[in-house]
Amino acid sequence: MNSDVKKYVVSCCSCQATKPSQRKTAGLMVPIQPQRPWEYAGVDYVGPLPRTQRGNAYILVFVDYFSKWVEVSAVREATAQVAANKFITDIFARHGSPSHLISDRGMPFVSELFEHVLLTLGTEHRLTTAYHPQTNATERVNRALKTAIRAYVGDKHTSWDKYIPQICFALRTAPHESTGLSPSMMLYGRELDTPLDLVTQPSWEGLSDPETSHSDNLRASLRDAHEHARLVLGESHERQKRYYDLRRRTVSYGVGDLVRVKSHPKSDASSNFSAKLAPLYTGPYRISKRMSDVNYSLTTVDTGERVGVFHVANMQPFHTWDSALSSQRAKLNVTAALDLSPLFNPGGICNSHNGVVSL
């Protein structure tokens, strides 16, 4: 009797939709480990911000995952055409095409125009999963940008675009925590001089080895910087993963498993809808493909329509009466065990006994 009650409660669809999980967030860290400059790059928009006198309201940010070099532009609109043009002029024309470009699933980055430009230039486009932006390194740069802009503008909030070049110079010349070197050293093999450097640092002109050409010195400097960065980045990734994984747990799903996905509704006062009272999960959905250790492609149960790719942090198992009895039996009988109507029907009644979910 106790066993049947437990199975009944676990497979209650209303409970699964509304009750939060008390377990650790799923998904261990899978770090991206670039080996050279502009192998992996990220892109993102910041804004909207107060429109400036020049008409700018957004910031477009590109960042190199290896050197941490940033290319930042103040732009009028956050569109696919702007992103594509800036990719050509600020990235391709200056640094060549990155092997991989990582972005979120915002409309400017999933458009046919942007995809066509990347494909033409030989860059593979990779998208972060919904509501899991940690993959994109520009998120950290965006925070530093907004902090710096806040410090520069004071109460003149419509003048922020004037300070973008100075902020970029500061980011490019400051030693990065992950590499221990500045982005300028990583990319150019030298530090960018400032007027203060000319005053405080002695001149080394004429003191270099006359037998060694500048090009040889530059190649040696870049080689040493990159070797040092690879070593330090590897150690940094291991350290970050160790601390990150303490708050995470390992989860693995198989093709055909049923899951529910975190919902992110927005309140709508006009229709008296409150996000705080909305269900926490939607589903059930069926796993159609394992994309990686932490990402899965989902489809609807009834039509097989593709829902999207989701990170395990936003997923929870969906239990039926049969799955509570036996996971093996659930995989064999899931089609017969489910009423394929939508999970959430405000006027419906949830009955999860006998392996049936009716709404």
From TrEMBL:
GO BP term, pick one: DNA integration
Source domain of life is Eukaryota
Any one GO molecular function term: nucleic acid binding
Query: Any stretches that span the bilayer, and where are they?
Result: none
Q: Give residue ranges for domain Integrase catalytic.
A: 33-191
Question: By its UniProt entry, which InterPro entries does this protein fall under?
Answer: Integrase_cat-core, Retrovirus_Pol_polyprotein, RNaseH-like_sf, RNaseH_sf, SH3_Tf2-1
PANTHER family documented for this protein: PROTEIN CBG26694, PROTEIN NYNRIN-LIKE
Write the protein's name.
Integrase catalytic domain-containing protein
Task: Say which species the protein is native to.
Answer: Astatotilapia calliptera
